[in-house]
Amino acid sequence: MYALHIGNKNYSSWSLRPWVLLKALDIPFTEHQHYFALDNSAFKSFSPSALVPALVDGQTTVWDSLAIAEYVAEDHPQVWPQKREARAYARSAAAEMHSGFSALRNLCSMSIGVRIKLHDTPPALLRDLARIDDIWRLGLSRFGGPFLAGSTFTAVDAFYAPVVFRIQTYGLGFDLSHETRAYVDHMLAQPAMQAWYEGGLAETVRDTPHEVEIAQSGEVITDYRATA
User: Core-most of 4, 82, 87, 221, by most CB within 10 Å?
Assistant: First the structure.
């Protein structure tokens, strides 16, 4: 059975991707959670990069979210769409998310348990949102939905799961199409997404760097997280 090492569910967008993929596809795994600290060198014990996520399978360790998806797909082909055209779209869209959208990442640090009013919505952020809207509408229209590459959840949905939570946290749906907003609602209703969300709300540990980033970007309107 796979062993998946993850960070805080409230903050760790990278950890969310493989976790929600395995959970949504009912692929068995054991979860090992590690809370962020000012010094994460202890993560070296399970991850060569000292970063999360990391997947351990016997003597094999995979320490990148996209690489984890590809590794798991070798034994579980349902990770990617079965039709070639849909698979090409899904891989392209997931890779673009993996390497791009820096404005969204930098200005909207993930914190699923709060609701935030941004101080500003600069053009770079609006461009990222417009591009995401284009990617999502393309997949939904071409492959029929309700997921991005067709009727079932696949890795491309997992890679955009953190964006779904960011849209909820920062109220970013104002400039998105009807199709995209419907996809956000559909994703938030998925049992795997709800399970991650509930786990994040239950955490009482706060990571100072993430909290500082959030305060710099906007005002916390509501905080649903549990307190110690």
Answer: 4
Give, for 49, the enclosing helix (H) or strand (E): none
Query: Which tens digit of pLDDT belongs to each residue from 6-40?
Result: 999 999 999 999 999 999 999 999 999 999 998 89
What is each CA distance from 183 to 52, 187, 188, in whole angstroms? 27, 6, 9
Q: Which two tokens stand for residue 225?
A: 């997280």
Report the distance separating Cα 164 and Cα 119, nearest Å.
20
Considering only CA atoms, which of 120, 150, 127, 137 is closest in space to residue 181? Answer: 137
User: Could you say which DSSP state residue 175 is in?
Assistant: G
CB crowding 101-128: b at 16 or more within 10 Å, else e: bebbeebbbbbbbbbbeeeebeeebeeb
The SS3 assignment for 60 reads strand
Going by C-beta distance under 8 Å and a sequence separation of 6 or more, which residues neighbour residue 217?
A: 107, 108, 109, 116, 118, 119
